[in-house]
Amino acid sequence: MNNAQIVARDLNALWHPCTQMKDHEQLPLIPIRRGKGVWLEDFDGNRYIDAISSWWVNLFGHANPYISQRITRQLNELEHVILAGFSHKPVVELSEKLIAITPRGLTRCFYAENGSSAVEIALKMSFHYWKNRGKAGKIEFVNLSNSYHGETLGALSVGDVELYKHTYEPLLLKTRTVASPDYYYREPGESRRDYTARRFEEMEATLAEHGERICAVIIEPLVQCAGYMRMHDPVYLSLLRAACDRHQVHLIADECAVGFGRTGTMFACEQADVSPDFMCLAKGLTGGFLPLSAVLTTDDVFNAFYDDYESMKGFLHSHSYTGNPLACAAALGSLELFEQSDVLGQNRQLARTMEDATSHFKDHPHVADVRQCGMILAVEMVKNKHTREPYHWRERRGLTVYRHGLEHQALLRPLGNVVYFMPPYVINEQQIRHLADVAWQGIQRATRDR
Ligand SMILES: *Cc1c(COP(=O)(O)O)cnc(C)c1O
Q1: Residue 204: is it exposed, middle or buried by C-beta count within 10 angstroms (0-12/13-18/19+)?
Q2: Is residue 37 predicted with pLDDT exceeding 90?
């Protein structure tokens, strides 16, 4: 079997995610035969460094032997069991571990299979909490501009990325959107802190004016990943936590993408020493092996639902594969790898290498910004460096970088005009330098006059 054979069969039978299928008349589809560490290998024997951790899920490399073994052991014991009325060891162990490592105050775990569902659960729980507490007038959510929380209708409603949302607008919940504290937009000479405080005024005003109607504010702490890897200062999270408390509004931290060490700390909220009322975890939760998500919440929230059945206060939400034992075993394997070595410490060295390998990028005539938060590094390509005028989306400059990467052993998948690295933690210095070289050449090609 070679690439062409499997691609022909694929294009006859599949409909791929986040893809205009007609693109594949031109754009190669890459069938992967196997993975090992940072490497993916296709059916023709070409190899690619997975610079984006396969949509940010992989932490410890493809086919990681330790996690594989953990799943195999579980597979021989119990593949799945209903989680209503029943339980099993991996889900109990995982819940205890998640409670132990997440910010204090998060004491209960509810499971689903993907990040969007986790967001739906947090939204429903928050609304239902206020209803159970006699505040049925709280029916709105506040989000930030350029935020992303998934693709199902509720999650899409609280997101703000035009590209994914626009078409479905008539179907969505109304959401109050406040300008994000994305520091790409700070004034020249303005400190991040001043800028962040200034940006927070709109949030404060919104909560002060509409708090009575608002269930929760939902935020992606520190990095809006799908929103072009835009970043903000941790102080925003501190200000937001205090304001949510003042105005009796929940704080939902969507750490689906940034959790498990991506931003340099195990969870992004730690950098502001903040505990949310709900924390959504997905993607890296299983080290990239199996679909699983979790929503962690507080005693206060849990207790608002805890009553006699007849009170009808229970949270009757479910998914068929809730708390799947194989997925929980994978998550336990991944967390054990964090315990077995100083992963975050090693990542600090890798992050410095990423910074060093891209230090010249900021001088490129079509690069407006190079920003980094831990193991996420992003490069913003623009048409005009001085005015920061972006390239028109129709030009699809990022696609040139993507194609260039594929020709040079790199899976780089830019978001619009933003080229970024978010690699598995098992990448080495030489591989980082290779990715940087390929990205630089790709940016050269992509920004040539047409
Ligand atoms: C990816 C993502 C989601 C959605 O997760 P899925 O598993 O793709 O449904 C939600 N929130 C954030 C911040 C994400 O990055």
Answers
A1: middle
A2: yes
